[in-house]
Amino acid sequence: MQFGTKVRRVEDADLVAGRGRFVDDIEPPGTLHAAIVRSPIANGAITGVDTSGLKPDVPLFTFEDVSHISWPHLIPELPVLAPLANGRVRYQGEAVAAVFGEDRWAAADARESVWVDYDQWEAAVDPIAAMEPDAPLVYEEMGSNVVLRSAVTPDEDVFAGADVVVEERINNHRMAPGMVETRAILAIPENDGLVVYCGHQMPFRLRDLLASGLGLEPDQVRVIVPDMGGGFGAKGGFVYPEYPLVAAAALRLGRPVKYIETRSENLATTCHARDHSTTIGVAATSRGDLVGLRIRTVGNLGAAAMNQRLCLGNTQAMAAGCYRIPKIDFEIKGVLTNTAPLGAFRGAGRPEAAYAIERIMDHLARRLDMDPAELRRRNFIPPDDFPHTTKVGAVYDSGRYEDTLDRALDRAGYSDIRREQQENPDRIIGVGLASYLEVTARGGEFGAVEMDGDGAVTVRTGSSPHGQGHKTTWAQLVADELGVPFESITVIASDTALVPRGWGTAGSRSAPLAGTAAQMAAGQVADRLRELAAERMEAAAADIVLENGVARVAGTDVSVPLGELAGEAGGLEAEVDFTPDGAGVFPFGTHVCVVEIHPDTGEIEILKYVSLDDIGTVINPIITEGQIIAGVSHGLTHALFEEVRFDESGSLLTGNWTTYRIPAISDAFDFDIARTETPTPLNPLGMKGVGEPGTTGATPAVANAVMDAMARFGITDADLPMPYTPHKVWAVLRSKV
Ligand code: MCN
Fold first, then answer.
1. pTM for the full model?
2. pLDDT at residue 583 in the model
3. How far apart are CA 292 and CA 282, in angstroms?
4. Which residue, judged by its Cα, is nearest atom 37 of ligand 1?
5. Do 94 and 303 form a contact (C-beta atoms < 8 A)?
6. Are 345 and 175 in contact (CB under 8 A)?
7. What is the pLDDT of residue 310?
8. Which residues on neighbouring strands pair with residue 376, listed in sequence order?
9. Regions of the chain short of the pLDDT cut 50
10. What atom in ligand 1 is closest to the CA of residue 687?
11. Residue whose CB lies within 8 A of the most ligand 1 atoms, among 510, 586, 633, 677, for a mutation test
12. Is the peptide bond before 700 cis (omega within 30 degrees of 0)?
């Protein structure tokens, strides 16, 4: 049995030996390299483009060269922009023109020869200020910067009947996703279409968007995703302007065209994430029973459409957290600003919701003078109340929240830490817990399985792995169904010519959807093999067992090789499109973080971190632990130091990895990772997604720990907003103590 076992990842040997093949490793003869001329200002008009210094043989593209591209995006309310600016720029780093050279240095030199003049205008940078009637408008034709709104408005006052109300303003600052290979695309003209190599999480979506944007049929565009070096949602379901630009250039110039973003471009123009300002209030009885919740969130959209609507929707869907809340009054607004567009990044709106509800639960516990664990316990949705529909419309499939809380507290030694806090007040120790849940695995996915006459098995999957290990885990699932060796299975993904259809990988969807589709397709092939074996060996199909590559009559040594059965049938194959009934599956858990703050330096030391997660049943615990560790790291460094900042003119202050601090190996520490297992009823094996839960639990756990330590000095969220950098912590302690 492979399911649930620690099979080593087949993907890693090539990657760790430097044999990975990324977009930039692919360079057909005659490739031209693109360099993009970008706006140095955040808001203004283009008043002139001087290309007199450009060598005559250097191809140059400006708006007129790409104005024919209708570039579909995901927010119909917003105007569709061409891939290059049309006389007006809306954020620093927006693409204005493109030049092409024989190599990337020639292209970069050519870029320096293009001079663009601008008339710089005042920029809308802060989303709260951008809502004011006299704020600069990002799109004049919209008449307002507030372009998205979603609300759930109950008839009654959600605070009525409560003994206690606490209300706080909390900010969730902006992050940038860091990936090993930055955004990368190579478009090769072939026949009357294109072959496109691109680090994209959804190859079919990219194919369809490029085809419709360029006026081609989908079958004229083949998208291949080689090794990617991470996407984290930011290479997900939307298309960046450079992609249709490069594709159009390849078609027009009749040569392969490659664009590899520089690290500075990556920080300036690959979508950012989070950036929510939230006022959240919660009402309760004096015994700590929740009465109502009111949330007002402003989400910064930046200056152009990505998948912000999806992210804001996730924040809404997750607003109630793990709690039974009788009344919820919720509103979220999406506000345009003259900053780089925002989009999905590990969690995509869910960590924002968990942070808000888990911070306010701690505030309420403090007001009630109640242990935060006890307050949570009182209000959890009980295990027998599933499926559970919340007042913001989410339908949770299953959960045992108290169980993960109790186990996490136990592993952390919670009561000992509380005792240490009391007995040793000289140490500034804080303990934070976060009970989270999140939605994963929405929609459906494709999987197909074939067996040939040699017994070799090929799996085609609609998922598009880029680090998650699907080649390993789908092979585990299929090996179990077919009774064949793991090694006899080849998994094919991420090529629109080799896989008939699919959605791709994001939203922690792949195991519950694509894994299930592969498993079900293998199950159909296995059923057919059992029928063929039963006929051949004159036994009942129910008595046939598939194991070690043969079909055997149970309890005998009469058997036939599976390849022989498949070969005689001319090969066996099955295809499955799996879409579960329900609105996603909901992993959950409790994270406990213990910190000590060193007042002389402002440094925060993590003394203990417990991640107790429930992702249903598990295919491969090595992989799921890796996902949790990586996810927690993302959420934790968000709380501690990662932050994108702009000045008041919209100029990026964090444009490289010196000013935008990303975690280094010296930031690593020991995690205690454990699981409970509550299967979802929404797929046959009971699996929930694992890619994002670590991130969702971590930010509030760290924030609650730091603010728990600070509470004794009367320091609140307003005094010390995230991220808790040593300098900020040191300064606030000096000012308050
Ligand atoms: N798995 C399992 N048992 C489960 C759930 C998952 O064994 N119950 C395994 C799966 O088979 C898969 C892996 O864990 O090998 C992750 O599965 P899943 O949670 O379904 O997530 P996806 O495969 O759909 O991956 C998306 C997720 C997201 S949303 C982000 S963001 C993220 C993440 O994966 N980006 C990553 N992990 C990443 N890892 C790498 N290396 N690079 C990224 O860009």
1. 0.97
2. 85
3. 6
4. 691
5. yes
6. yes
7. 95
8. none
9. none
10. 8
11. 510
12. no
